[in-house]
Design a protein that fits this description.
The protein is mostly helical. Helix content is 73%, strand content 0%. The relative contact order is 0.09.
Length: 165
């Protein structure tokens, strides 16, 4: 999933390099090259700032919540950050295998945005499972998505990871 933050990280170094080259060109070719490199590096740093600030803001918000409260947030229909909640629970040493059902329900959802949140959660919190279904038809039919999710449920049950929904 490609987000606004990804776009900022991608475009900032390019704009930084272009700005550096434009400003440095007034002083000559060597200055343009050096200014372009400096602009690229500064753009890369500046482009990461929004991502870092958002992550810190989320961590601060999560810090005051118990594991039960985080799980309740995860199960809310309007939850837009299931991957971040799962990673927070995991960082606290919580067993997130029992939350796989939430992720699979998102992947089966009729709403494309929820499927995107589900895919982000699967790839970040359950990377081994995501690799097993790297060709997941995120925009495929419900039947296709359900079949693959059912297979993941079976694998999780065999591993003792999650009860059937």
């Amino acid at each position: 999933m490609f987000t606004l933050f990804d776009m900022l990280e991608l475009l900032s170094p390019i704009f930084g390099a272009l700005a550096g080259i434009t400003l440095g060109a007034r002083l000559g070719v060597i200055a343009a090259v050096i200014a372009g490199i400096v602009g690229f590096v500064l753009g890369r740093i500046i482009g990461r700032i929004p991502t870092i600030l958002m992550i810190r803001m989320m961590q601060r918000r999560f810090r005051g919540k118990s594991a039960a409260e985080l799980r309740a947030d995860l199960r809310r229909p309007d939850c837009m950050t299931p991957n971040c909640i799962l990673l927070e629970l995991s960082s606290r040493g919580e067993d997130i295998k029992k939350d796989l059902d939430v992720v699979l329900a998102l992947l089966e959802s009729e709403e494309p945005s929820k499927r995107g949140f589900g895919w982000a959660a699967l790839t970040s919190a359950f990377p081994d499972m995501a690799r097993m279904i790297s060709d997941f038809p995120i925009n495929g039919s419900f039947a296709e998505r359900k079949k693959i999710c059912d297979r993941l449920r079976e694998l999780a049950e065999q591993a003792g990871g999650t009860p059937p929904p």
